[in-house]
Write a structure and sequence with these properties.
Elements lengths: L1 E5 L3 H7 L4 H22 L3 E8 L7 H24 L3 E5 L7 H14 L6 E8 L1 H15 L9 H7 L10 E4 L18 E4 L9 H12 L9 H7 L1
Parallel strand pairs: 1-2, 1-5, 2-4, 3-4, 5-6
Helix pairs in contact: 1-2, 2-3, 3-4, 5-6
Length: 233
């Protein structure tokens, strides 16, 4: 099972309390830890988190720098917990835009945790769905397109940055917003969605559980009828 979360509402959480936006992002790190622990507890195979979009680079420099600093701090603080819980940590996105300092810390935990066999925890950093589709097409053209090979759906999946990772079964978005915000546009074709008004810094295990309970009551048809699904099962 693959659960993906669009973590939204850090800024509004801080504003409601008269705090700096970075304080909201810092509090949101605690929600990441809680979500990670709950995913391990529930035996979830994949947990992916939309941490920083390509569009987020347009935010004030102070906020971006602060977010990157928090990323390094969180990796260092959670490194022991990741290893103790047998979690494989990965980062996906247009990483050419990430500073060498941040990438150094990311690569250290990615390499160290690559031997782990439990929860796959994937952080989407400097990511956008449109970028993912374009880079996949360009990679295909560079490798195979010049010999007349056509790009098909299965082939496309092989060139996306998420190759080898199952499409998300459930996408959770916090803060009351109800949109994808350029997140996994291709991969979310048949994902279920769960929207909650809870701001990300307030997201706790009980909120995660509510999302899973709602998902468990849905019937995923993939374009078929209920009768067809029952017959195939």
């Amino acid at each position: 099972m693959h659960i993906s979360i669009i973590m939204d509402g850090n800024g509004r959480w801080a504003k409601k309390r008269g705090l700096n936006r970075l304080d909201g992002h810092r509090e949101g790190v605690e929600s990441v830890r809680i979500a990670m622990e709950y995913a391990v507890e529930k035996g979830i195979n994949y947990l992916s988190l939309y941490a920083f979009s390509e569009e987020n680079w347009n935010r004030p420099v102070e906020e971006v720098d602060g977010l990157m600093g928090l990323m390094v701090e969180a990796i260092m603080n959670e490194r022991k917990r990741i290893m103790e819980n047998n979690i494989r940590f990965r980062v996906i996105g247009n990483l050419d835009r990430i500073s060498a300092r941040v990438m150094e810390k990311i690569n250290e935990i990615v390499e160290e945790s690559s031997v782990n066999t439990g929860l796959n925890m994937i952080v989407y950093l400097s990511y956008s769905g449109k970028w993912d589709i374009v880079q996949a097409i360009n990679r295909f053209i560079d490798e195979k397109g010049k010999n007349g090979t056509k790009l098909g759906i299965d082939t496309m999946n092989e060139y996306l940055s998420t190759t080898g990772i199952p499409d998300p079964d459930l996408i959770i978005r916090t803060s009351g917003e109800q949109r994808l915000s350029n997140f996994m546009l291709w991969q979310s074709a048949y994902s279920e969605f769960y929207f909650t008004d809870v701001l990300w810094p307030d997201f706790r295990k009980i909120d995660f559980e509510k999302a899973l309970n709602t998902y468990s009551k849905r019937e995923r048809r993939y374009g078929q009828t209920g009768a067809q699904i029952n017959k195939n099962n």
